[in-house]
Amino acid sequence: MPVPSSEHTNQHYASFATTSRLVACLTSESLVPAYFVPSKEDVILGLCLLLRPNSVKEGDIPTTVTLDDVLAVVPLRGLPIIDNTQMARFNGIACPRIDLVDGLDMLPHIYSIDIEAKPSSNSVTEQTKKTLTTVLQTQSKFELVDSYDAVQMWDRLATDLNVNGKLKEQIGQELGSSILFQKYTYDNPKELPGLQSGTIAWEQSVVEGHATHPMHKARKSFPPMPALYPGSYDLDHPRVRLVGIPRGSATVRGEYEELSKGLIDALLAAGGGNVQELRNKYNNHVFIAIHELQLPNVEQKFDDLVIFPAQHCVPVEALASLRSVARPDILPGLSVKLCLGVKISSALRTVTPFTTYFGPGFSYDVVPKLTYDHDILVVERELGTVSYAIEDSDISKHCSSVVREAIEYSPEYKDDLFIPCGALVEKIQRPDTDQTNLLNVWDLDTEEKRVNFLTSYVDLSLRSFLPPCLENGVAFEAHGQNTLARFDRKTGELKGFVIRDFGGVKVHRPTLLKSTGCELDVMPDSCVVADTLDEVAKLLYHTLFHCQYQRLIRVLGLHYNGVGWEIVRNRMSELIPKDHVMWPMFMAHDKVPGKCLVRMKIDELYRDYIYRPVPNMINFKPQEVGI
């Protein structure tokens, strides 16, 4: 068991983890101007200088910086993605615009300016202040205050952006929740997983989660659910309760009742009665397992359900998403996606009727006809769903469930180890380290080893996810939570990948129809429908290249030298024909559409996306600051 870091260290790093992600989003989404200030100091490479949004008109290049213009100051250890064509000159110093900055570019300090604070003796703070002074237009004395947190930064930014009071408070609460739960994770380290660990241990090894979302650790509940605080409920080991939906009020798709039988029988038996007698008694009901935390929502919103007594409960294991659960001894080869009315990162984690309708049809009719190598990629189908039949989807989404394949819990794959790809790049259960699970378990202690691992990873993942995109117009949501890497448990060799969860796929209907003969069966206004192939490409770019590759390449130490991206670029050039319509989408542009996580929060969007141009990392090459 790793030794927990100190209370002070954990609080500092919890604040940094959330706030650095907020800085990354504000920069890439162009919500604030951000500039790279080069440094001549030895501890820092330079600064990420975030200016307040009203300090300069959009499209203009500022010529001066005053104390009041500064939103935040972040010392850097690595060069962010810069735009030398947007060069500001502050006091004669060339400061290029920052297009993208990652938390791994930053030293673990984020500063605000205070004219009354006490001076700091920390070397990073001193060098940051010295560098900042070279570009400021001021004679006033000031100090830098460390641990400027996301809630404070958001409060100031939201005021500048005129965000309405209720939304401002709500987003602030979610950022605060993210910091609180991040600290709790640091305070309670788990056993480090290895090649002999089970998939569930890897699913629950997540330390920080989404690499760029500032609500990456938020767990925000809403009435009638009780408030969630760190330690108030064991989200990794929840219990499910038994509920019966009258058949006339249930929409069942696929083989839901047959596949859920093992779990439902266990719930019926847990109450001490005869299982068959209870099934006969409630023959006019469809049984559904409900996450224990979700019961207050179910009780409030549905008045004709049978909610069985508390003893009808079964402990389960939460997967990385927290709302999907497994019990391999009860449901071998399957997992269950549950409703959970808690905001985790971007959204309330319920299961919409769009999802429960789409999954089985896509699984049975479309997936078997998609173009992909079945030896490399396994697509885990959603074989059965149930939802409460009511027209209002905002109510229906609180009482629904999906049963899907989970080969990682199937006895026939016992010699393979399946790991959520996001868990590979997680830190080893403490904040103050660059060591990750991947480097620790696979002993990637030389650049040659790291290059070989990345080459195999890129080759197999591109051969998994590019063909459906290129041939069928289908993009899977291949980020690190939905994608599992499949390894030989004895050798650690990467064998392929598994993709799960169809709620966020994108499908271009004409391309699918032409290539497979399949019509896409969706509810009206389903967000899986892509009007253009560009939409398909940008989903795959965001999930696979931005969310997966960028983190992997950075933790392998192959980002700044460009080696990692050259591996990606070369393999893409081999797999995409130059005359294919998707060649320019991936390969020809310096900028691609980037998903705007904070702008979407401000506009209160989830199923609809906002995109802004971001650097196309496929074409990334080592940079220098222009003069």
Automatic annotation (TrEMBL):
User: Which PANTHER family does its entry note?
Assistant: L-2,3-DIAMINOPROPANOATE--CITRATE LIGASE
Q: What is this protein called?
A: Uncharacterized protein
What molecular functions are annotated in GO for this chain?
acid-amino acid ligase activity
Can you supply a Gene Ontology BP term from the record?
siderophore biosynthetic process
Q: What residue stretches are annotated with the Aerobactin siderophore biosynthesis IucA/IucC N-terminal domain?
A: 200-425
Domain Aerobactin siderophore biosynthesis IucA/IucC-like C-terminal, first and last residues per copy: 453-576
The organism is Mucor saturninus
Instruction: State the InterPro entries in the record.
Output: Aerobactin_biosyn_IucA/IucC_N, IucA/IucC-like_C, LucA/IucC-like
